[in-house]
């Protein structure tokens, strides 16, 4: 009997457990025994495995639930880790390694594959795609994105109707790291120019605070309200993270915005009191799980309306946070189906002779009725790279999407509330 | 032909438009012509009316969407406003006034009713209940709560699964003003003691920062992770709003928490730069639309783990924000049905002879199969009062719910994701 390890890396999605089900069910059909590594490569190194089958917990019980049911990790394996992993793999007679995750996980899979080759350990490694950020190169779109986009679209529809009820300025900060795909989904329920969000900001289009405020106040003047979506990865004109950008800090150093800068400076002392802001092994800093960007933007807008219009506008800001990837009450049926499909495909490729290892990628044919299909590419082609929102999906002013984006994304979310 | 005004007040809910539909459809059946006042009593004073029928926009088009489709207001009418309103009502031959809203709206309806009597203007005034806070006295529960509770329950289920994936400490700040009903709904998908949220904090049970941190660190020590739900209305031991409480400020004034106090002090300057923190006419300060409470709790937990355990825990905090009342992708079917029912009932009471005016209240019979029904009580019995979470729904430690609460709330949400 052949044995496989399946593992998960990076942030979970609404449908990552469907990919797990796909791998485990397809493996069972092919007579492959599967061990799940708890918390990805970190679990491998601790020899923390659980045997999994399609009909038992956690595969069967969590198939339709969010979260990484076998645990995830942000650990990046080095050569020493790999040597240790291969000893453990040898002991368990492991011939296949399936790693479900995003760019970092693709990179980790690539490292493990390369080290296995150089160590002469016979292992076929497969990366199974997953990320709400939708930023894996070579993929038309990524499993997990459709459900997150659905959440964001339904959220902005509701939030815009809420802002019309009690008019004011509302900002929503949306996940996506350094790519604007998820923020772009804020547009998907817009039916007219009246509808919010009237403004969407992307990491791909750096903005100054002055430019941002001018946009927001213009929409407010025109409609008596403004609904704004902002990617958490928004940059200042110097292309660094908005609230830590020197350019933005310089804008905040001038009246009437100085109180905001003071707040940011005071917050830095909190970081110092906890050992300082940390980057993970893949080099990423934390962007989610804090309301800082939303609160800075809300304060700036409030101050700007007060100083320019004589009265502070009703101004609110929400940071959508982790629910974008884990809200249990809703899922894109297309996304769920495709997540399972890429899991199955990985096993099929593993059974095939042609490819030693690789990254399963999701392609789509939109020439007729939308159809998605999987292909296999080299691990190095995907790992560690970021696919940004392309120019033809962003409007000329860099503060909204094009109809081409809407047509693309609407195929991925399933039917929306409007 | 008799004529009625329908209006909405306060924060919208997921199902407030179903109550509008109920009023308008039932009125049509009874030959009553209905004008909708845009933005509640504020629209009445501007004579801003739109004729509404069950089959046309916005009643038909927004029936199943969130937001107050005819606009809402937080304006509290005074005697002058009422005099002006009655002149306008006279001109339009208005005999009935239906006002859909929460405690403040019930109070506004009561004021209008009293002033109409003293002015000798023949008007029958009906308050139709609505609030995600679930805090209207005389009601078993309030339309809008079931859907918001459903959102919070499905959110915490997903978020707990997310935290198990990448273990750490996660806090979620939940709406509800000064009542803990919505925070309590965080418990509804818990199946075992292992499941999060292991801790829930209510306005009804004031806490010190030290007490809060001791709870969180104990759960973290036991489970290696902690999922925490906190009501936005949480109080310090002096029973005032948590982050502005003098008791909490005194705790933050001591090392290692002083950087947090500095941040709060710096933020106060932002308020000053926008004309100062304002209260609305009903005397409420803004609790939602800022990440302040979540960020303070996250910073405190991070600092506490760093100083007590030698390493800052992975610690995140989300403020759920407005999506709790307006997320378009999900709704409680029970809630939607009951929201329509109370709207219809208001019209039926208006057609009846027995009561001049009143507040429609929602009762429930749980002796057999759950059954909800409406009754009419005096406007003064509901207006401006707050129904807190009762003692038998809160556990002994004041950091979780009882099985009695779960049994109660599960009847209101419809089937959840688990």
Report on the structure:
Two copies of one chain form a homodimer. By secondary structure, chain A is an alpha/beta fold. Chain A has two domains: 197 residues, Rossmann fold, CATH 3.40.50.450; 203 residues, 3-Layer(aba) Sandwich (Rossmann fold). Chain A has 13 helices and eleven strands. In chain A, the strands form two sheets. In chain A, strands 3-2-1-4-5-10-11 form a seven-stranded mixed beta sheet, with helices on both faces. A four-stranded parallel beta sheet of chain A has the order 7-8-6-9, with helices on both faces. The termini of chain A are far apart. The relative contact order of chain A is 0.17. The mean pLDDT of chain A is 95. Chains A and B meet through helix 5, helix 9, helix 10, strand 9 and helix 11 of A and helix 5, helix 9, helix 10, strand 9 and helix 11 of B.
DSSP strand content of chain A: 15-25%
- The termini of chain A sit apart by 51 Å
Q: What is the count of distinct domains of chain A? A: 2
Number of strands of chain A: 11
Average per-residue pLDDT of chain A, rounded, comes to 95
Most extensive chain contact?
Answer: A-B, 75 and 76 residues
Can you count the helices of chain A? 13
Spatial extent as radius of gyration of chain A = 23 Å
Structural class of chain A: alpha/beta
Poorly predicted runs of chain A are none
CATH class division of the largest domain in chain A: Alpha Beta
Strand line-up in the sheet with most strands of chain A = 3-2-1-4-5-10-11
Topology of chain A as a string of helices (H) and strands (E): EHEHEHEHEHEHEHEHHHEHHEEH
Helical percent range of chain A?
A: 25-40%
């Amino acid at each position: 009997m052949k044995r496989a390890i399946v593992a998960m890396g990076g942030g979970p999605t609404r449908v990552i457990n469907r990919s797990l089900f796909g791998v485990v069910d397809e493996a069972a059909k092919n007579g492959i025994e599967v061990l799940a590594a708890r918390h990805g490569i970190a679990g491998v190194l601790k020899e923390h495995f659980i045997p999994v089958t399609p009909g038992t917990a956690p595969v069967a019980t969590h198939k339709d639930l969010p979260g990484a049911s076998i645990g995830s990790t942000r650990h990046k394996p080095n050569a020493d880790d790999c040597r240790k992993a291969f000893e453990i793999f040898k002991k368990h007679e492991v011939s296949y390694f399936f790693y479900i995750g995003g760019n970092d996980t693709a990179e980790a899979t690539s490292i493990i594959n390369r080290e296995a080759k150089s160590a002469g350990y016979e292992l076929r490694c497969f990366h199974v795609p997953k990320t709400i950020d939708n930023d894996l190169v070579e993929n038309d779109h990524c499993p997990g994105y459709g459900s997150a986009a659905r959440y964001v679209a339904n959220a902005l529809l509701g939030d815009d109707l809420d802002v019309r009820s009690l008019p004011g300025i509302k900002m929503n900060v949306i996940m996506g790291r350094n790519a604007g795909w998820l923020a772009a989904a804020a547009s998907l329920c817009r039916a007219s120019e009246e509808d919010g969000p009237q403004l969407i900001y992307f990491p791909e289009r750096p903005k100054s605070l002055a430019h941002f405020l001018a946009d927001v106040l213009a929409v407010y003047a025109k409609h008596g309200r403004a609904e704004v979506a902002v990617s958490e990865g928004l940059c200042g004109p110097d292309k660094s993270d908005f609230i830590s950008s020197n350019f933005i800090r310089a804008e905040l150093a001038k009246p009437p915005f100085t109180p905001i800068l003071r707040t940011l400076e005071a917050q830095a002392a909190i970081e110092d009191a906890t050992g300082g802001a940390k980057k993970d092994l893949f080099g990423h800093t934390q962007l989610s799980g804090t309301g800082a960007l939303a609160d800075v933007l809300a304060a700036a807008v409030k101050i700007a309306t007060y100083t320019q219009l004589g009265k502070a506008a009703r101004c609110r800001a929400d940071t959508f946070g982790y629910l974008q990837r884990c809200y249990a009450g809703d899922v894109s049926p297309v996304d769920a189906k495709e997540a399972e499909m890429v899991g199955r495909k990985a096993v099929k490729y593993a059974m095939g002779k042609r490819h030693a290892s690789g990254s399963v990628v999701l392609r789509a044919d939109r020439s007729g009725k939308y159809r998605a299909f999987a292909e296999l590419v080299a691990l190095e082609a995907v790992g560690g790279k970021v696919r940004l929102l392309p120019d033809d999906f962003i409007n000329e002013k860099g503060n909204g999407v094009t109809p081409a984006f809407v047509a693309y994304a609407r195929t991925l979310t399933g039917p929306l509330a409007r």
